[in-house]
Amino acid sequence: MEWLILGIVIVLTIINVPIGFALSISAIILLLWKDTAPLSIVPLNLFSGASSFPLLAIPLFILAGGLMETSGISLRLVNMANSFVGFIRGGLAMVTIVATMIQSEISGSSVADAAAIGKVVIPAMEKRGYPKALSAAIVSNAASAAILIPPSIPMVIYAWMAETSVAKLFFAGFLPGFIACGAMMALSYYYARKYNLTVETRFSLQKVGKSTLEAFWALMIPIVIWGGIFLGIATATEVAALAVLAAFVIGVFIYRELPTKETIRVLKESAGQTAVVMLIVAASAVLGWYLTSEQIPQKFARMILETTSNRYLILFFLNIFFFIAGMFLHSAAAIILIVPIVMPLIRASSSRSIWGWASRPLR
Fold it and tell me: Which band of pLDDT confidence, cut at 50, 70 and 90, is reported for residue 354?
């Protein structure tokens, strides 16, 4: 049955049905087919799925990213990154990666990062002879770091689904995020040598100091976010609200580059992006209810454990599963659809001690 559900969602996605509608439609089809519950369960779960307090962090982080894009914060981060790594061949690509990494520490959204940094660096890349495909690949891959580097919106969704600590997930995301960024910079240097790309500027401590000073207030936003979460002063949702306030104050009163018209536009665009994500979250709650009522996660876990108890094989199966699902599903939809299925498997594996490290208490 789980394969039928995934198949329906994938087919609907392929024919260009929005993923939020695809999740709801698949749940409705299965409810009508199995006739296990009235259709009134659909609107009830749609409402309850989107009314969780931790999910308030999502629109707030999206809004913070939008304010950064139009208030001059992103431009100053790009200039600072340029002073640090612009002297390396293909430095503009590395500037993009470094600036996006810093931006990711504020917005938590890959879409917001790609929009904010891409508007600044892609025209500059084209002027300096970067192939268009390479420019787009650099920006899109650099923006994907927002999935790993806190405050990550997908991590907020995962924490809500798996009932785990957002702060622990954020802390765990730093190392793989920095490793991914380092690997992307190394690959950018390889392509810079291959295409004989230009060196942006000479290294100068004076430029580093000046650009860092200009970006000082922009750098305060991630410090507020990290400090609030890791010191236990505020929850992820409260820190997201502080990030919005900080971005607004810096854009309006310090940099003075956030006019009223632009503020209204950012609010509208943030509302649109939030609606898309929350529709996916709400729709997946309906499908999640159906999966739980049919005990499909438990059946999936039992099927895997009956096949093998080797933790490496289980990891291999899960990664193949994630890889295939990720080709078709939005990250939020994939998390919400897959986590309820695989969490019983992880818990069952831990109870059998085949994940030796997973069964140990955190210290």
Answer: very low
Comparing CA positions, the residue from 342, 288, 296 lying closest to residue 317 is 342
Dihedral pair phi/psi, residue 174, rounded to 5°: -60, -55
Report the C-alpha gap between 187 and 181 in whole angstroms: 10
Give yes or no for a contact between 244 and 60, defined as CB atoms under 8 angstroms apart.
Answer: yes
The rounded distance, in Å, linking the Cα atoms of 8 and 12 is 6
Run of H or E including 280: helix 260-293
Assessment of whether the complete model's pTM goes beyond 0.90: no
CA distances from 337 to 19, 38, 217, 287 (A): 11, 22, 39, 8
3-state secondary structure of 199: strand
Paired with 89 in beta bridges are 199
Quote the percentage of the chain above a pLDDT of 70.
91
Whether the CB-CB separation of 116 and 107 falls below 8 Å is answered with: yes
| Number of helical (H) and strand (E) elements in the chain, helices listed first | 17, 0
Compute how many other C-beta atoms are within 10 angstroms of the C-beta atom of residue 73: 30
Number of Cβ within a 10 Å radius of residue 193: 11
Q: Comparing C-alpha atoms, which of 164, 157, 170, 140 is closest to residue 280?
A: 157
SS3 at position 41 = helix
Contacts 24+ apart (CB under 8 A), 45-53: 45/282, 45/285, 45/286, 45/288, 45/289, 46/282, 46/283, 46/285, 46/286, 47/282, 48/285, 49/281, 49/282, 49/283, 49/284, 49/285, 49/286, 49/288, 50/278, 50/281, 50/282, 50/285, 52/160, 53/237
How many residues belong to the chain?
363
The DSSP call for residue 89 is B
What is the Cα–Cα distance from 285 to 37, expressed in whole angstroms?
A: 15
Q: Considering Cα of 8, then 14, then 19, then 25, what sign does the dihedral take? A: negative
